[in-house]
Design goal:
heterodimer; B: three-stranded antiparallel sheet; extended
Chain lengths: 377, 161
């Protein structure tokens, strides 16, 4: 039986008004603008776009402001917003090899074509709080060095080793093979790599980080090297049916990670390096790396490895990576469960009554037994 | 013509026109709404009909496994598109990332006008070339700033003994 309970409308209305007031905070402090969020909190914006699975900096900035900086709530707002829009179709696959690279590092090759380019990064910093940032901003742009670019081509590291056959080639399917889409069909198992990568690309950064870390600590070890991490702008092209050609929609920023891992080889295949792949919206290296490591560990079956760890369990990983679903299910526990709880309350009362009754009977039997024993003595 | 691979000059011409139109649409798509509006103001377009109202929707962006392998769905982008028809008959289209409907409309009108022989040269010279130049300059700045962060390794040479 389902019993609807009404009430609390006024309390809810007032709670929302109070949220708006608390969100604004002290009005003697200027309100945040969306431009400020988009420009100055770009990592938050990137995370919300990635986990919200919708690339739009302005919308992500609005979501962050509305959510008072709660990034999972903001990603939730993005997911909800996207359901209001029609789908025009699918883009052509982005070419990360043609990226306008802002950062590119490889932990496996010192001297590689295009070089090691650090770009904007927190790496090599001492993680000391910079109190200069706490001072009033005078509006001057920080000075940077520039240099004349020497080489423009920056081939992917994995393409370099591929020539020798030492690197596992990318899987290529017929272009007509349908590509799985989680926004069209709910996740089902077994999930192929296309669905796995889509799931991981919009998965929770913290969850993927923890799983990737677990593989490093021995739970399904894959011996990863960061073959390459690159970040920058890629063009998005869309084939417009009515025009008969692909139009360039603009550019988005993405981070790509190629993890290079061991492979013992098998009776059918010679030993070669295997790979895990990460691709995410914005500059989110931690997640791109984690995604690549988890992608690799989920390939255990295909590569003839043994399944021993949570990070290899496709169903476990993919079913729990989505923080919108996860937060929905965890946080729904806050909603009224009065009727469910009443039923449980009745049950526990009954169980306690039975428990006490049983104990009383046992005590009586024990007493009767010992009385009989005393009498016998 | 230097290109001897193609048999049919008409096809070449069409491919060239498509290439030029693609470039024009890409330049408009990459421009800010303010920049498109500023250029649009310099034109006096004829009357036009909206064949397709400016409309915002989603395009699912695809990546490839490992960078070059089979495609997978990465996530969506917002896209706004528009189609107009000028009273002189030309049909113009626009597609660009984001949600700006005015930019979509103005870009479609510019695309339509560009197809008029009497306007092609002017639009390329006064609108597309300056926008493209600005966009290329921005990319150059990124490249130059990035280049300054390139690592130069020193090899420490040890003695033989």
């Amino acid at each position: 039986m389902y019993v609807a309970v009404k009430g609390g409308e006024k309390a809810i209305r007032n709670a929302h008004k109070l949220t708006a007031k608390r969100r604004r905070g002290d009005t003697s402090v200027p309100a945040l603008t969306l431009d400020q969020i988009a420009e100055q909190l770009s990592h938050s914006v990137a995370r919300v776009m990635g986990e919200g699975s919708l690339y739009d900096e302005g919308l992500a900035a609005l979501a962050i402001k509305q959510a008072r900086g709660d990034l999972i709530e903001a990603a939730f707002l993005m997911r909800a917003y996207r359901t209001t829009l029609p789908r025009f179709g699918y883009s052509l696959a982005v070419d990360t090899g043609a990226m306008l690279v802002e950062r590119r590092v490889s932990a496996t090759y010192k001297d590689l074509p295009g070089g090691q380019v650090l770009g904007p990064t927190f790496d090599y910093s001492h993680r000391l709080l910079d109190f200069a940032l706490a001072a009033e901003d005078d509006g001057t742009e920080p000075e940077v060095e520039t240099a004349e670019p020497r080489e423009t081509a920056m081939p992917r590291v994995t393409d370099l080793l591929g020539d020798e056959g030492l690197m596992e080639p990318d899987p290529v399917t017929d272009e007509d093979t349908p590509v799985g889409d989680l926004t069209r069909e709910p996740l089902s198992f077994p999930a192929d790599r296309d669905l796995r990568l889509q799931n991981l690309a919009r998965g929770d950064e913290g969850f993927l980080l923890a799983l990737a870390y677990s593989t490093q600590r021995g739970y399904g070890r894959t011996h990863p090297f960061a073959g390459e991490i690159r970040y920058g702008e890629v063009e998005v092209e869309f084939f417009a049916e009515e025009l008969g050609f692909a139009v360039t929609l603009g550019t988005i920023k993405v981070t790509e990670c190629q993890m290079v891992n061991q492979f013992k080889g098998s009776a059918k295949a010679a030993p070669t390096f295997t790979r895990g792949y990460g691709l995410v919206f914005g500059q989110v290296e931690r997640k791109a790396m984690s995604m690549a490591m988890v992608d690799r560990s989920l390939r255990w079956q295909e590569l003839g490895e043994e399944q021993t760890a949570p990070a290899q369990d496709v169903e476990f990983v993919l079913s729990h990576s989505d923080n919108i679903q996860a937060t929905g299910f965890v946080e729904h526990l806050k909603l009224p469960h009065y009727v469910d709880f009443q039923a449980e309350l009745g049950l526990v009362r009954q169980m306690r009554a039975e428990w006490f009754e049983k104990r009383r009977q046992e005590e009586e039997e024990t007493e009767a037994g010992s009385a009989a024993q005393e009498a016998a003595e | 013509m230097t290109d001897i691979s193609s048999q049919d000059p008409a096809t070449d011409l069409a491919a060239g026109a498509t290439g030029a139109r693609k470039a024009l649409m890409a330049t408009l798509a990459a421009a800010t709404p303010e920049a498109v509006a500023e250029k649009f103001e310099t034109l006096t377009p004829p009357a036009f009909d909206l064949v397709r109202q400016p409309e915002t929707g989603l395009v699912m962006v695809r990546g490839r496994m490992g960078g070059t392998g089979s495609p997978f769905n990465l996530g969506e982008v917002t896209v706004t598109r528009c189609v107009v028809r000028l009273s002189t008959g030309e049909t113009g289209s626009s597609y660009s990332l984001g949600r700006n409907k005015q930019k979509a409309l103005q870009s479609a009108v510019i695309d339509a006008l560009w197809q008029r022989e009497d306007m092609t040269a002017r639009i390329e010279a006064e609108i597309i070339a300056p926008l493209a130049k600005g966009q290329a300059a921005e990319k150059d700045t990124v490249r130059e700033e990035t280049e300054a962060t390139k690592v130069n390794f020193f090899t420490m040479v040890r003695g033989d003994n």
